[in-house]
Write the structure tokens for this entry.
Amino acid sequence: MKKSALHTILIALGAIVVLGGGVAVSVFSQDAAPQEAAPPEPQEVICFESRKGASEITQHEIQPGLLNVKCSPTTGAALWYGDPYEGTVPMGKMPLLESIPDDKAVVRPRSEKLNLLAMCGTACHNNTLPLASRVPPTLPKNNRPVPIPTMEGMLPEIANLQHGRGRIWCLDCHHTTKRNMLVDHFGDPISFDQPQLLCGKCHGDKLRDWRDGIHGKRIGEFASTGKKRWFVCTECHNPHDVQNGDRNRGFTQLQPELPPQLSHGMKDANYEKLHPIPH
């Protein structure tokens, strides 16, 4: 066989790789099946319930074939819940709502999401450091906000605080020494999971409407004695930037969507009256 013909056959069967000054020939069978690409890992689906970044829920299965939440493909908002009480805790006692049993009014705790709270409450503002080491060492002599670059870096919206139109400052809402707590009119601490007790200091009419079910959001059983998840103020409103949205009232409006359509062959949605998860 001629040298040129042998060279052509080798090229057809494999590949020639030049290694240093030598030649290595790798031969591959033309009948070998190509390797299948690994299937892509499913992406985590997170949809928001009332305000992006504040009230969000991660989609997962709570039973085979049953998702905990269905998200809108258009806005990313929660449309339907497989279990509206997942991850909730008792709301705690509220004035004029003491008659509601603890297991009938629940909220999803938010303090566990606020990662800065633990650092604020222990690193700088735990009130246990020697006076010379405290940050800040003393409180301001007046209630005028003082620019703090560290705080503005963590929460950029407080650089131009849009709440109260310049008439309130940080320590009207945050506890003086327990920075992982809010504060009431008497100086007593309020949990971040009960911000309605703080907001009611100034917005008594809104607190009344929220308490009576006129203002805000609830999901669950709509019977008067049924179990409900209550959404607290800061799940819908950003307390540091309330002049937001077209109406300057604390919301960035969303375009309403058409109601979900029934699956083919279904005449009604009576199946939704039967909760798949016992409570």
User: Anything to note?
Assistant: Residues 8-29 have pLDDT under 50 and may be disordered. The CA atoms of residues 84 and 197 lie 24 Å apart.
